[in-house]
Amino acid sequence: MASMACLWILLLIPSFATAAKQTYIVHMNSNSMPSSFATQHDWYKASLQSISSSSGPDSDSLIYTYTTAFHGFAASLDLDQAELLRQDEALGLVYSKGSSSTSNLCLPGSLDQNQVRGKVVVCDRGVNARVEKGSVVREAGGVGMILANTAASGEELVADSHLVPAVAVGKKAGDIIRGYVKTDPHPTALLSFGGTVLNVRPKRIVRYTRVLTNVGAAGAVYQLAITKPSTVDVQVKPTTLVFKSVGQKQRYTVTFVAKANATSRPEFGSIVWSNALNRVSSPVAFTWSRVV
User: Fold this and answer.
1) Which of 11, 109, 200, 234 is the most buried (most CB within 10 A)?
2) For residue 193, what pLDDT is reported?
3) Is Glycoprotein among the key words of this record (predicted)?
4) Residue 252 has pLDDT above 70, yes or no
5) 145 touches 133 (CB < 8 A)
C-alpha cells in the first residue's frame, strides 16, 4: 500500500449495512499522492481496496471525498481495516512552534509555517476565540488541532464547529499532551471522536481579576487568607504579593467554582491580603443559579 499521512476522526454514526463497521473521516496529505493516480479520488479508492478482505472492489466503503476544507475521505470500515490504515505514516504533533511567545495560544500570525505545515497543532485555550485558533492552524498549513485547556478553563469543554479536524481536551489531558510533545523527540497524533454525550452540565465557574495597591513601604509582602462557605471552592493566584515600591499595583485572579452541594441562597466570605502593618479585606457574596 502506498505510504500516506492520515489523520483520524472516528465518528460513531449508525451503519445499517453492518453493525461491525463504523464511519471514519481520514485526512490525507495530498502531496503524498503517487503519480500513478490521476485524481485523489482514485488514490483513496485504491487505498481502501488494498485493505479490503474481498476479492472485488468494495464499492460501499468510500462514502465521500473531501477536497475543499481539507483533503481526505469518509469511509465505512471495520476495526481490522481501520487498524491497517492506522499503521501507515502518522502525523507529527507540535506545540508552541512560532516566532513569538504567543504561539502556544495560536494567535493570528504566531505560528511558524515551516514548523506547522502538515502537522497537528496543540493550541492552549484562551485569549482569542476557539474557532479562530483552528483558522490560524489551517492558514499556517496545519492539518488538525488539539485545543487544550489551561488552569483558567479547567475541565470545562465546549463543542465548536472548527475549520480543521479538531478535538478539545481538559486541563489534565492537556498537561499530559503538552508534556508528551516537549519530551518525545518525534511526537505524533491520532485524533478520535467517541460520539456525543448528552445531559452533561459543566461546572459553574466565575472568574475575575482585581488590583491591589501597596499603601505600605517599599518591599512590602502581603499574604493571602480566604474565608468561604463549604459550597464553593475559591482559588486565588498568586497567593503572595511582593511590592517593590510605594504605590505599586499588583493584579491577582480569583476563581469561584460551585460544588455539588451549592444552593441558591446567598452565602458570604472574604479575601484578605495582609502583613504585620496593613490589612486589605474584600467581602464576597455567593449566589448560584441552578441550570435547568
Assistant:
1) 234
2) 54
3) yes
4) yes
5) yes
Residues whose CB is less than 8 angstroms from the CB of residue 275 and which lie 6 or more positions away in sequence, other chains included = 216, 220, 221, 222, 223
Task: Identify the three-state secondary structure at position 85.
Answer: helix
- pLDDT tops 70 at residue 196: no
Digit-coded pLDDT (tens) for 52-82:
654 444 546 777 777 776 677 777 777 777 7
The whole-number average pLDDT for the span 6-29 is 53
Q: For the chain, what are the domain ranges?
A: 22-50+61-85, 90-190, 205-286
d(CA 105, CA 103): 5
CATH of 205-286, picked from 2.60.40.2310, 2.60.120.10, 2.30.30.40, 3.40.630.30, is 2.60.40.2310
Sheet holding 240-242, edge to edge: 240-242, 221-227, 267-274, 279-286
CB atoms within 10 A of CB 96: 21
> Per-residue pLDDT averaged across 14-18, rounded?
37
Spatial separation of the C-alpha atoms in residues 282 and 226, rounded to whole Å? 10
Topology of the domain comprising 90-190: Glucose Oxidase; domain 1 (3.50.30)
pTM: 0.46
Strands of 249-258's sheet in order across: 205-213, 249-258, 232-237
Q: Which contacts (CB < 8 Å, 24+ apart) does range 57-65 have?
A: 60/17, 63/23, 65/40, 65/41
